[in-house]
Amino acid sequence: MGDSAVAAVTSSWWAPALVAAWLLVLALGAACLDAVLATRGHGLPVGRRAAAPLQEAARLLHQQRRTTLQADTLLWRVTGPGLVVAAVLMVAIVPWGHQVVADLDVGVVWFNAMDVTVWAFVWLAGWGPNSAHALVGGYRFLALALGYELPLMFALTAPAVGAGSLRLLDIAQAQDHLWFVAWMPVAFLVYCVGVLGFSVSGPFSTPAGADVSGGVLAETSGVDRLLLQAGRYALLSAGAAFAVPMFLGGGGGPVLPQWLWSVVKTCLLLAALVAARRRLPAVRPERFAEVGWIVLLPATLLQLLVVSVVVVVRS
Description:
Blueprint: E1 8-9, H1 15-41, H2 52-62, H3 73-77, H4 79-91, E2 99-100, H5 107-127, H6 132-163, H7 168-173, H8 180-183, H9 185-198, H10 222-247, H11 258-279, H12 285-314
Parallel strand pairs: 1-2
């Protein structure tokens, strides 16, 4: 392991607010792009569809909250804010060049811990309203998570082993000469699958599927529904931002300042993830469990073995 990268930790009181605002911009951009791609996919003129998420947000802010009989109201209401907070805490440890809000020595573990809290919030979105369709959606998410979570954990381990550190700045610095995505392609692809999974997007959207009347979204309305939807896009954005120091060389690049390279790479990967969530078909939990445990997990372990051998040979 080389010398640790020096971080400029932003300790100002406004730093967390800036991170939250930046994540909101990314999530809004992802939602607008998603609306445009959906419109084009139906062969309709795009027109002003890019503004559709803003119009939907305004409508939901004015809509009355729905209540159900014998609902677990407290647990139900915390799910939307919980997803948003988990996404903000993921982005708080991401370095933008050498600027970072929280420079944790165990940044990779922190991100994985935040990802696991999503399990609880999505399941509670199904449990809280005391509704059959919502509960089916919640259990569908748990079944899908059992398929993607373990491969995702090992995919996160590969860059940490390659850099000899769990700190994101050290991992980004270790890619000065070669990005990890170039010799850890399997780990990168599995990581992207995991991001679609914990953001309940694309092939992992069945917990909110139309065949169960919207699943975890079936009984939500008003600001609760707005926060749940915002949380999904925020998690997708946080996953794209975290991939930059892990696999895409951090802020490394010619001409532009490092923080701007981090922004450019995050936006490009986020656009690719939004496009992928539109093109990939939804998968049933039992089908994905087979893929996750029989294909993705062995492939990720083999990738980790290759990385470990390379590190030992280099040392």
